[in-house]
Amino acid sequence: MSKAIIICIVLCLFVVNIYAQDIDIGNTKSDTLEYHPQIDSYFKKSNILIPISEVIGINLGLCAFNNYVSKEPFAKISFKSIADNFKTGFVWDNDFFVTNQFAHPYHGSLYFNSARSSGYTFWESVPFTFGGSFMWETTMETDPPQTNDLINTTMGGIMLGEISHRLSSLVLDESTYGFNRVSREILATLIDIPRGFNRLLRGDINRHTRRNVNDVFPINSRFSFGYANVDRKKKYNINKDNALAELVFIYKKDLNSESFKPFEIFRLKLGIDAKTGEEPSSWVDVYGILYGKNLARIKDKALILGVFQDFDFFNNSIYNLGAQSAGLGLIVNVPISRHFSFSANVHNNFIALAALNSIYRGGENRDYDFLMGDKVLAEGILDAGPFSLQLEYKLYLMKSINGIAGNHTMGFLNPKLFLKVYKGLGAGAEFIYYHRHSVYKKIEVNNLDLTEHRFYLSYWF
């Protein structure tokens, strides 16, 4: 299911790029590419009962589906099961990795956007996400409420919710007509379902304005298709030789701005690779700024100190890693000349909750530990004419809090080289070095030492 969702998201974001490039569609030209802030007079806050009702409706609707369509035993709730849940209290669950680390954050984004699309700010929408998750955990299942689900649904839902809200704003443009307008409304709804529902409820889908009234910031994205290969090592029983597709989406306010609100800067990376007859690998790698202040604005140079939030989801045959984290970081932007520039991003995050595959077996569905710890992200980009040289390193230092007691160190070193050839078309190559060292208390040591090569054709938007 997660693979299908990720493929759909990749396709939707690919189309977002088309709509966000100021292209004539249906003989109507929009001003989506031109930067402008949201015009607040067009976004009135709804009565608080609207998002509360929608959050409750989402939970009741999904519970009914689980009960009457999927016929899941955990969905057969009663007043007794609710009372038992409060009596038992929060526990750790044994669901599939994908369910806990991806499906729950996506579920949380629906809660968040029920409020966000009703005129509430980013921070005002946070309690609805937590409240929706708390309601689900305590009343919508016969299973005891689960600590990991509450954290993943809330933190991941906030992040994915705000990003999908901003992506839908890139598509929506009420100054357009005809096929252009209809197709924008449909695509925006696919990206942000609660927003599409609320626009229908308020009649905004029929409103016409003289200009685009949504937040619009410059975007830069790259779609790549090619080949991925992991060096074969018998002791890991790995033989990866796959087709690869990846979409990198960079959304950012002018870096010379004085300050930055939540997710006015973010990077979203979505990918999938597989060969015929093999279960696809997938990844969702996101970071965004929660608040930032520009410490130095000198001749287009910027030094931004900020609070960042990260969402990591890597699901493949080599390792499974999912993490929710937040912390302090710096963004540096130094234009050197017309054809040369350097930028860097470094931040250090507290990992509120992570999941990592291990020797643990919690029933038939769970083969991973829950962990807490620290994440360091460092990336640098040197652009020189048509060439772009990039280096990224991520390091995770984690300790098990549920599963098998142990300490885990995991890192990814990822140099990349890109060449733009003609009108956005180009090619790229990457080298990825994975390393992992897991020490399980009184059991065993688990080491991982692998290299991967990627080669692909790319299109820059």
Can you describe what's shown?
- With 461 residues, this protein is α+β, with helices and mostly antiparallel strands.
- The chain folds into two domains: 2-206, no CATH class; 219-460, Beta Barrel (Porin), CATH 2.40.160.
- It has eight helices and 13 strands.
- The chain has helices spanning 2-19, 49-69, 79-88, 97-116, 122-139, 147-171, 178-191, 193-202; strands at residues 219-233, 238-252, 259-260, 265-274, 281-298, 301-315, 320-335, 340-362, 366-384, 387-402, 406-422, 425-440, 445-460.
- Strands 1-2-4-5-6-7-8-9-10-11-12-13 form a twelve-stranded antiparallel barrel.
- Strand 8 and strand 9 form a beta hairpin.
- Helix 1 runs antiparallel to helix 7 (178-191).
- It is globular.
- 38% of the residues are buried.
- The model is unreliable at 22-32 (pLDDT under 50).
What can be said about this structure in brief?
This protein has 461 residues and is of the alpha+beta class. 30% of the residues lie in helices and 43% in strands.
- Biggest pleated-sheet summary: 12 strands, antiparallel, barrel
Strand tally is 13
Please tell me the overall pLDDT: 89
Distance between the termini: 29 Å
Any idea how many domains? 2
SSE order, as H and E?
HHHHHHHHEEEEEEEEEEEEE
- And the CATH topology of the largest domain? Porin
| Overall geometric form | globular
Tell me what the CATH architecture of the largest domain is: Beta Barrel
CATH domain class of the largest domain: Mainly Beta
So how many helices? 8
**Weakly predicted, low-confidence segments:** 22-32
Work out the strand percent.
Answer: 35-45%
